[in-house]
């Protein structure tokens, strides 16, 4: 299929397909003499897997690290294990950020209360 049909079937733009090619996530199956790209069903499956991984919250760099695992292992277990590792790391990072943000919020609320006291005191004096 040509790029237009692939884009339509995968519900992505031509530009997205070209971008994924530049990143090495997708490869045309063959090129015609005039330079037209032709894609096979594997390209569509890769685009569908990229979309699914994006929905899980992976960025394109992370997707590049796991995408091929889904296509060299028919069970998909290797890819799923790698995605699980990435998601667990993201959760740990989010937990750390949440803890830091909670501490920052507590300090900010304390500083606001202190400033309100200083203003009230200055108004009384």
Describe the structure.
The chain is mostly helical. The protein is 75% helix and 3% strand. The protein has five helices and two strands. Strands 1-2 form a two-stranded antiparallel ribbon. Strand 1 (30-31) and strand 2 form a beta hairpin. Helix 3 crosses helix 4 (60-72) and helix 4 (60-72) packs antiparallel against helix 5. It is elongated. The chain starts with a helix and ends with a helix.
**Average pLDDT for all residues:** 93
Q: State the major sheet.
A: 2 strands, antiparallel
Shape: elongated
Number of helices: 5
Task: Please give the alpha-carbon distance between the first and last residues.
Answer: 81 Å
Q: Which secondary-structure class do the elements indicate?
A: mainly alpha
Strand content: under 5%
Work out the helicity level.
over 70%
What's the Cα radius of gyration?
25 Å
The total strand number stands at 2
Strand order of the largest sheet: 1-2
Oligomeric status: single chain
Low-confidence stretches are: none
User: Helices and strands, in N-to-C order?
Assistant: HHEEHHH
């Amino acid at each position: 299929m040509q790029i237009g049909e692939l884009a339509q079937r995968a519900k992505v733009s031509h530009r997205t397909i070209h971008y994924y090619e530049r990143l090495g996530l997708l490869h045309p199956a063959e090129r015609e003499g005039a330079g037209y790209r032709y894609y096979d069903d594997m390209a569509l499956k890769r685009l569908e897997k990229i979309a699914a991984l994006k929905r899980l919250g992976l960025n394109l760099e992370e997707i590049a690290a796991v995408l091929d695992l889904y296509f060299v292992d028919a069970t998909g277990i290797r890819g799923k294990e790698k995605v699980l590792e990435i998601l667990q790391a993201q959760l740990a990072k989010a937990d750390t950020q949440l803890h830091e943000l909670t501490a920052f919020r507590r300090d900010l609320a304390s500083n606001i209360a202190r400033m309100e006291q200083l203003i009230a005191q200055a108004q009384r004096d």
